[in-house]
Q: What sequence folds into this?
């Protein structure tokens, strides 16, 4: 059975016990623009920054814009579903700023799902703040995943209506940084009936070193990783290590290739996985990863797989920004 991390048993009313703020309450009408004229994401960002300039806010705008560009060069913030979330942590920024713009026509930039960007959510934060801006980004991402939300936003013609639409979505932000703020949703998974070839192909396609193993209903059973695949080819690897002159009658990888369509995941996967819930505190997961020297935890709700959190995500999202 999978192991539950500290805090992962928190269900139902646990989030209600923590202080929360609604995402809509962080938005200001004067920092919303419903009629972006920009045709590119870069131009849209400049158009939104102008809203702050018009308020008379003073900061090193060139430094701020460069920070946003630097973040885009590391990885595009175009999320898909018609949304983009450009953001930057900069010493030139003294407080959290949230700006939102809507392009009725859509921007020309390339997107991961080929749906033009129509909604830009721009976040600026001081270098010393990580929690609130990450949770705000996560909140906007949860909002973007709701069915039909893009269509609703494109029909809106007033700023109060836009903020009301976000309020009606009931997206809340916790006082503490939670797993749901960082995790990857809908992770790649295989079943016990998939073959070694299926696993290898999916790992290659998604650039992954491990896959969740689930049953037909999506309940988490365990994990299979690249080490398991290699070990399938070399079941006698301990003998090989202890005796470098160990004589192999056949080439192990050649033999594995002959059986890759016959070896099932059920023969290889392990059930010793670490499991948390979306409402587990990030500080608990980070401590567990260090203490147990693990690279990934799976996220479940009522045993159903809903996400995965990688150790590198803590570096990429929290430390790098």
A:
């Amino acid at each position: 059975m999978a192991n539950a991390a500290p805090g992962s048993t928190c269900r139902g009313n646990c989030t209600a016990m923590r202080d929360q703020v609604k995402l809509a309450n962080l938005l200001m009408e004067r920092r919303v623009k419903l009629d972006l004229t920009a045709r590119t994401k870069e131009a849209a960002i400049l158009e939104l920054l102008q809203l702050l300039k018009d308020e008379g806010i003073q900061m090193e705008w060139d430094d701020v814009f460069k920070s946003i560009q630097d973040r885009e060069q590391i990885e595009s913030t175009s999320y898909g579903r018609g949304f983009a979330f450009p953001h930057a942590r900069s010493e030139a920024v003294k407080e959290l700023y949230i700006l939102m713009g809507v392009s009725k026509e859509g921007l020309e930039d390339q997107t991961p799902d080929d749906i033009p960007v129509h909604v830009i959510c721009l976040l600026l934060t001081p270098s010393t703040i990580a929690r609130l801006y990450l949770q705000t980004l996560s909140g906007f991402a949860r909002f973007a995943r709701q069915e039909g939300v893009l269509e609703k936003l494109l029909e809106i013609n007033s700023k109060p209506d836009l903020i009301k639409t976000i309020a009606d979505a009931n997206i809340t932000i916790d006082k503490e940084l939670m797993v749901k703020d960082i995790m990857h949703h809908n992770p790649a998974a295989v079943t016990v009936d998939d073959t070694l070839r299926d696993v290898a192909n999916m790992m290659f396609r998604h650039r992954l070193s491990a896959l969740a193993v689930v049953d037909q209903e999506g309940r988490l059973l365990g994990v299979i990783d690249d080490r398991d695949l290699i070990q399938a080819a070399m079941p006698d690897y301990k003998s090989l290590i202890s005796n470098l002159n160990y004589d192999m009658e056949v080439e192990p990888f050649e033999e594995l290739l002959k059986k890759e369509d016959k070896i099932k995941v059920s023969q290889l996967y392990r059930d010793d996985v670490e499991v948390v819930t979306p409402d587990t505190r990030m500080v608990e997961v980070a401590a567990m990863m260090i203490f147990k020297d693990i690279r990934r935890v799976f996220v479940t709700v009522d045993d159903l797989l809903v996400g995965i959190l990688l150790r590198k995500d803590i570096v990429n999202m929290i430390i790098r920004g």
Notes: Confidence is low (pLDDT under 50) at residues 6-17.
